[in-house]
Amino acid sequence: MDYLTKLLKESSEKKGGDKELAASLGVSRTTISDVRGQRRGLPLEACYKLAEMTGADLARVIAASEAITAKKPEEVKFWKKKLIELERLAACVAVATVANFVTPSPAQAAPVLKQAPELCILCQMLRRAIKKARGLFADLASDNPTTWTPPAGSQG
């Protein structure tokens, strides 16, 4: 199930059906059905409302919708590539946020490490994850974000 279809399904369940979802987005039920069937994308205003309703990233919603409406293969490829880049960015933000809150400062970690040296391995792993995430952010912010490759052993 693609990203946009997943958002529509979740939103429809929360709203109580496609009729209510369509009314909330300002489109017809037929439009919702066509989007699910990959026959048309959502209008930009509906993309904005869907992103606002679900808390999803607006750029990801628009990229997913545009990937459906693109006619030429190179346009489809462009939008799918943008969607993948945005998904990677969202994953990096999530990892960095969790790692930032979980990793203690050196002052907080020092007493713990004296009492339980085996925790040091966890701290080292988290610090490495933060460094990698910072490197990914720098790469994604550069002019050539496509050079990013997932770490060995991960799915991407």
Describe the structure.
This protein folds into two domains: 3-69, 434 Repressor (Amino-terminal Domain); 88-147. The protein is an all-alpha fold. It has helices spanning 3-15, 18-25, 29-36, 44-54, 58-69, 73-102, 106-115, 119-141. The chain starts with a helix and ends in a 15-residue tail after the last helix. Helix 2 packs across helix 3 (29-36). The protein has eight helices and no strands.
Key terms:
156 residues; mainly alpha; 434 Repressor (Amino-terminal Domain); 2 domains; 8 helices; 0% strand
Describe the structure concisely for a colleague.
With 156 residues, the chain is mainly α. It folds into two domains: 3-69, 434 Repressor (Amino-terminal Domain) (Orthogonal Bundle), CATH 1.10.260; 88-147. It is built from eight helices and no strands.
How many domains make up the coordinates?
2
CATH class wording of the largest domain: Mainly Alpha
What is the radius of gyration? 20 Å
Run of helices and strands: HHHHHHHH
Relative strand content: under 5%
Proper CATH architecture of the largest domain? Orthogonal Bundle
Average pLDDT figure: 76
**Low-confidence residue ranges:** none
CATH superfamily heading of the largest domain: lambda repressor-like DNA-binding domains
Question: What name does CATH use for the topology of the largest domain?
Answer: 434 Repressor (Amino-terminal Domain)
Distance between the termini: 16 Å
Largest sheet features: none
Separate helix tally? 8
What level of helicity do the residues show?
A: over 70%
Global morphology: elongated
Count the E strands: 0
Briefly note the structural class of the backbone: mainly alpha
